[in-house]
Each structure stands twice: as C-alpha cells, then as structure tokens.
Amino acid sequence: MTKEELMRKAIALSIENVKRDGGPFGAVIAKDGEIVATGVNRVTDSCDPTAHAEVSAIRAAAEKLKTFDLSGYEIYSSCEPCPMCLGAIYWARLDKLYFANTKTDAKDIGFDDSFIYEELELKLEDRALKAETLLRNEAIVAFEDWMKKDNKTEY
Ligand SMILES: [Zn+2]
C-alpha cells in the first residue's frame, strides 16, 4: 500500500468509529506498505482515558509482534497526536509519523489538547495540575536496584 492508501485506512477507521459512537480517530501501524496493526479511539466504550487510536494501535502492534520496540515501523494517524500519544510514539521508537487532521482541527470540534502542550511549557508550580515531590529518598531505592541489576531488559 502507498502512504496515501495507509492514511486512507486510518481515516476510514476514524469515520467508522464515529458510527460506532467512538471518537473520530483512527491509526494504522505499517512497515514496507503492509499494515501490522490498527487502532481506534475507545475511550468511552472501554472507560479508558488512555485508549486513544495511536496508543491502541501501538498496543496491538506490540502484542502482535511480541516486542516493545517498533523501530522500522511507521504510524499513520487520522489526527495529529495529543502529547500522550506523541510520547507513546517516541517510547515505541516508531520511525515516522504521518497525520491528516491537525490539532487545530481537533480543537475546533472540542478535542482541545493544546492546553496540555501549553502546560508542558510551564514550570511545575505554574501548571493547572498541582504536583509535589514526596518520599524521593525512599523511591530512589528502585532506581539504585535497577542500576545494580546485571540481567535487566533495557528499553
Ligand atoms: Zn492521544
């Protein structure tokens, strides 16, 4: 499949998902023009705020391929990813991101993730999400154990 055909598949998934009362988002993960996994937004029907199309596609691809490293694969998303999905795309080490609708298009229909992008620019104390450091001296033990461990699976 060409990249346009792969994107049309992501778009078709997004349109079908609206008919199923899901959010208007779809994603496809592919390599060499072959689809390995797809995902749609399942936030409302699965009661999972992280079940965005891109995260769903990454989970499906990783499970199918039995790896957490999707290097060599590309993701086609019907919409520009939110910060969570963009982070997931980096963590999955996907080679390239294609998107169709922009985050501005999403904002125009009520899916405004620009505030999260704006939050990331702010200092911790200036963010809407209140946060504080707690028991760092106890939590650091896990990090020290990780550093000492010889047979760990690095990711
Ligand atoms: Zn997302």
UniProtKB/TrEMBL annotation:
Domain named CMP/dCMP-type deaminase: residues: 1-127
Enzyme Commission number(s): 3.5.4.3
GO molecular function annotations of the record: guanine deaminase activity; guanosine deaminase activity; zinc ion binding
Domain of life: Bacteria
Top EC category: hydrolase
Short name of any one Pfam family annotated for the protein: dCMP_cyt_deam_1
Coiled-coil regions, chain positions: none
Keywords, ordered alphabetically: Hydrolase, Metal-binding, Zinc
InterPro entries the record matches: APOBEC/CMP_deaminase_Zn-bd (IPR016192), CMP_dCMP_dom (IPR002125), Cytidine_deaminase-like (IPR016193)
Keyword Metal-binding: yes
Biological process terms in GO annotation: purine nucleoside catabolic process
Signal peptide as annotated in the record: none
Similarity comment: family membership: Belongs to the cytidine and deoxycytidylate deaminase family.
Name used for this protein in its record: Guanine deaminase
Originating organism: Bacteroides coprosuis DSM 18011
